[in-house]
Hints:
The strands form 4 sheets. This protein has a 28-stranded mixed beta sheet that branches. The protein is elongated, with a radius of gyration of 28 Å. It has a domain at 349-500. 5% of the residues lie in helices and 47% in strands. It is built from 2 helices and 50 strands. By secondary structure, it is mainly β.
Amino acid sequence: MNKSEQIAEQILNALINVRTWGFIIFNVIAYNAYGNGIKDDTTAIQSAIDAASENGGGIVWFPGGRTYKLTRALSVPSNVTLYGDSSAILKWANGVAAPSKGAIQLIGTNSRVIGLTLDLNGKTTLNGIAVLNKGFVIDKVTIRNGYDYGIWVFEDIVAPATVPAGNDVAGEGFITNCDVSARDCYEIYSGRKVVISNCIARGDASRTSSPSQTGFLVWGRGRNVALQGCIALGSYLSGAFQFVGKEQSEATPRMINGNITMTNCQAIINGPGSGMLVVDCSYVNANSLYIEQTGTGHGIKLSQSDPIAGSTKSITIQGTVNTNSGTPVYVESVADVELSLTMQTVSAAQLAYIGGAGKRVKFRGGTFNLSSTLGADNFFAFTNNAFGSITFDGVTFKGSATGYNLRNAPFFGEYVKIVNCIFDGVRVNVMKPGSYVQVANCHFMDLDNVIPAGGNFWINCYEADKYSIIGNVAQITPTIANFVLFDSGTNRVVANNLFI
């Protein structure tokens, strides 16, 4: 703090009310808050908040360089802002019971928290900031030592029966530039029209008490949520970014049409949880997603647990996924998924798993990098004859060792389409796909790494009902004898393939 800022702070400390920017500033020190971390400041702070509310709104200011001791929840009504910088610390006292919703409760419309640090002191069952109404702003807030929810957008405190339909949930607000360490760092449970931007989640799944579950969680009745430039760090038991339509105890999902968008988000994690987890939630769109998972968890996991058909569908993801021992992409029993990914793994047995009773999964663009740990027939694994269709369009497959195949396990579903792809040191081996296989306009290159000297280049469509191999180009070197097609299908078209 420079000299001018020190003088300004001294002036503000001497005044109870200072009118500026059309608001009244209420200095908590003037309402007998000590800010020494020893004396209980709760009553003084709430008095300043109440005075601002009686004025019709205002800024409750916390001078920096102080620690304000809390023993009860702060209730922030309409048009009141709690304001300070990161050196103004609100710390929950030792040995004090946690309130039911949060240490700071935004109960009114257009209430705000800006610039403060909230230390939850490792209190289990204590939430940080609970949003219980609309029009909120939480900006430049740091929450540390959280052992429950960090920022929690929850239901309106007014009983739903007393308010119009659609107005019984919190939301229509912004969470920006925050840094949160908690069990569930950011949770949108009943919020709608919420924007979370440039925020950091810090998880620790290894701690024995209340290990971290999620970084950014949208579930229940949460929907219409946008995440922009958010980063999840550390480790989580469940998912760094997690979108779930129901609790396990619920019979049916509350949230199916999530309408969740992600832009330029990152998960740099090292635990058992997934980088992105979607369960019983639809209409999720992620662009420029980056996942670096150095632990045991998956990169992206999309699944459906609810018996209602279509509870997980319409998922679009574009980005980069790198994993250690977890599968980069795990998709089970979902529909209408489009993925444009650059993927690789250090030691996972599969680069992707596609299975269950889903349908219509498309990989469009992107690069799939094979590692030496992948088995020769485990580039992809497709495991259920109830699965519908899968498409690879414009994908580059890169092999780093011999024998890599684009392959699926027996009893795959009804339709496999591979078009406009580049296979660099990779060959195609589609085993028992069911009804139809199409390989068209693909380019096969660097086949010496795939086929032994004197061997054959082949596309295997074993036991396909019908297939078409049209317009492909394969670079055949003198060490490779010729093109061979393995099949036992009855309806087949092989035409216009060029071998050079």
